[in-house]
């Protein structure tokens, strides 16, 4: 009996307990890493939606602030674009990809819409010398969730030409 107890090494029970502890620890690490990746992706999508909203707000403000409205509000001159025929609410549109267009041409580059973001509920109105703009940014997969939105007014600087 003494010969068996003097042998060095691990018993089967010790080995099984060690394997179970390692498996539990690796399972916890895998679950934690998955939660971290999901959290990172969610925060990146939110940040990109906010960035797109801010970019659109700035670009629209710049275009509208310096535009010239002519012929009873049926022809508009935009800096770097030229003359566009139509009313203010008709020259801006959202295409099937959910991207804003001005006079039938893409307003921002395709790369400005990352991660499948698109515009929803875009509206623009013109009264007096002020434009009122409203839109929402949504994700293509989850169309019911608004990731960012903007409601703002822009006062036009250029005087109306008749």
Question: How would you concisely characterize the structure shown here?
Answer:
This protein is of the alpha+beta class and 162 residues long. It has one domain.
Give your account of this protein's structure:
- This protein is an alpha+beta fold.
- It has one domain.
- Helix content is 38%, strand content 31%.
- It has three helices and nine strands; from the N terminus they run H-H-E-E-E-H-E-E-E-E-E-E.
- It has helices at 2-5, 12-65, 88-91, and strands at residues 68-70, 75-78, 82-85, 92-94, 100-102, 105-106, 117-127, 130-139, 146-155.
- The strands form three sheets. It has a three-stranded antiparallel β-sheet with strand order 1-2-3, with no helix packed on it.
- A hairpin with a 3-residue loop joins strand 2 (75-78) and strand 3.
- The N and C termini lie far apart (113 Å).
- The mean pLDDT is 85.
